[in-house]
Amino acid sequence: MSAEMLTRYAGWPVIAGAGLAGLSTALHLDGPCVVLSPSPLGENAASSLAQGGIAAALGPDDSPALHAQDTLAAGAGLCDPAIVRTMTQAAPDAVCTLLEWGVPFDRHTSGALDLHLEAAHSRARIAHAAGDGSGAAIMRALIARVRATPRIIVLEGASLRALDVHENRLRGIWAGLSYIPTSACVIASGGVGALYAEATSPSGNRGLGLAIAARAGARLADMEFVQFHPTALDIGDRPGRRPLVSEAVRGAGAALIDETGERFTDELASRDVVSRAIAAHLHEGHRVFLDARKVLAGHFAQHFPTIAASCAAIGIDPDIHPIPVRPAVHYHMGGIEVDARGRSSISGLWAAGEAACTGLHGANRLASNSLLEAFVTGQSVAQDLNAISLPNAHHVADAPPALTSAHDYGRLMSAEAGILRNEAGLSKLRRRLSSDALQDDHALVGAFIAHAALQRRESRGSHWRTDYPERAAPHRNSFILADLPLHATSLEYA
Ligand SMILES: Cc1cc2nc3c(=O)[nH]c(=O)nc-3n(C[C@H](O)[C@H](O)[C@H](O)COP(=O)(O)OP(=O)(O)OC[C@H]3O[C@@H](n4cnc5c(N)ncnc54)[C@H](O)[C@@H]3O)c2cc1C
User: Fold this and answer.
1) Domain Fumarate reductase/succinate dehydrogenase flavoprotein-like C-terminal, which positions (predicted)?
2) In a 10 Å sphere around its CB, with 0-12 CB exposed, 13-18 middle and 19+ buried, how is residue 402 labelled?
3) Cβ contact 414:197 at 8 Å
């Protein structure tokens, strides 16, 4: 069966994903481009849900060097120091550009930006907008700008389905059953959180861009590093996304308590430490709550309107009740391995934002560094594309290979590749997923995570092996599809 040819876009760069990374790429390009967005712009993207804000050394007591130092400390020895330097130096300009583009960052009455302090940052450096609605405010401004830019064609309802790669060079992409001949594609499809049963991520974050890139031969790196947020709202067995109770609530002085009313951990320790403490306490049969009653009594909704609304939906008033919380998957440090320009191991394939693995985060992301990364990687990819002339593209292709992404492995992923991992559980997970991975994209991404986590026989950053609790010599994992022990015969691409 042949694919419908979208020849009117032949040769244009195609951007798969319309979160902050995808829109930043599109807006920084000089020429025409196509943006594939499975949902209406702004919906089903982690970018729209970001609460805390974007990290940048903007305060008088701060510097990119201090920001870099905090990023390296959080990354637990696995960050790429050159990338960390580049990103932290680019951060103040990124916030200035966002201001120019109309993002209404919150300010003091003096007019200076109101910068928040977040856990593991040594300075107040988080620029935020609309209180805890930072991501939505940023996305509103960028969407308005995209809509006002005629050279950007947004195909709403369209998803990247496969890449057409010949001799390690891109010659086209399939969006659904349609084919666009092109020598440039940017994967900006976000993270993998929704592969897990409990995640703060939207349902669109299932790692499909990673699976598509891997099937075409791209290298994926740091796949074992999945960050858990310690305090997602505990909504019990209800399906779907777990609303986030941001670090800023603990920053404001709220205490983590159990059902006896006792504190059991340091609320301001790093995310992985607090997540492990809560996971262990839950494992012992306790319930865990975030108690903001004393510190924010009567003012909670004023400071945290989004969180207050999520609490209200399950009958909790944070001024009166402690908020039930438990850890949930929040961010993926791994992804498509890229260099400083966002280039992957396939010629013509770039990646930006959470789908990319730049080396900024190492084994653990510093809070509020990911909106920064999404914006700056989009900019770097666009600058790289602006500097090269893309050849005419005219390849004609058949329909893409038949693959599914129908299965839900969430419970298995949460149980075996969660906060606490071990050889037996990870081997079981890899065995189970490997038998489906050649046909199913969810299974393939899960198999990469299980394989990388098995290979890392140590505990570091967000990766905690109960059977290897110590650190080993630092090394980074990066794999291609052929490195995985998958069971069936390989699929042929058209
Ligand atoms: C609740 C929450 C709060 C957060 N708070 C903060 C914060 O305060 N500060 C911070 O720095 N970070 C925060 N993060 C992380 C940050 O929001 C994300 O890392 C960042 O927004 C990722 O941007 P992105 O553009 O890469 O991905 P996304 O914004 O997730 O966008 C990716 C888009 O690609 C689409 N897509 C998926 N598959 C395909 C496909 N096959 N083809 C085409 N499109 C596809 C998805 O539907 C989605 O719309 C938070 C995350 C969550 C979940």
Assistant:
1) 445-472
2) exposed
3) yes
HSE, CB side, 13 Å, CA atoms: give it for residue 152. Answer: 27
| Annotated active-site residue in 271, 421, 460, 476 | 271
- Distance from the Cα of residue 295 to its chain's centroid: 31
Of 219, 224, 141, 208, which Cα lies nearest the Cα of 175?
208
Residue 188 sits at φ, ψ, to 5 deg, of -135, 50
By DSSP bridging, strand 178-180 and strand 185-187 are unpaired
Cα angle for residues 54, 189, 335 (degrees, 5° grid): 80
Q: Is any atom of ligand 1 closer than 6 Å to the C-beta of 52?
A: yes
132-154 pLDDT tens trace: 789 999 999 999 999 999 999 99
Q: Is the CB of 20 under 6 A from ligand 1?
A: yes
Q: Are 119 and 251 in contact (CB under 8 A)?
A: yes
How far apart (Å, rounded) are the C-alpha atoms in residues 339 and 389? 19
State the Cα–Cα distance between residues 344 and 340, nearest whole angstrom. 10
The residues near 268 (Cβ < 8 Å, ≥ 6 apart) are: 119, 250, 251
**Burial profile 154-167: b = 16 or more Cβ within 10 angstroms, e = fewer:** bbeebbbbbbbbee
- Going by DSSP bridges, is the β-strand pair 288-291/255-258 parallel, antiparallel, or unpaired? antiparallel
Domains and CATH numbers, the chain: 4-190+333-386 (3.50.50.60), 231-327 (3.90.700.10)
Instruction: Judge if the beta carbon of residue 265 lies within 6 A of ligand 1.
Output: no
Q: What are the tens digits of pLDDT across the range 21-75? A: 999 999 999 999 999 999 999 999 999 999 889 999 999 999 999 999 999 999 9
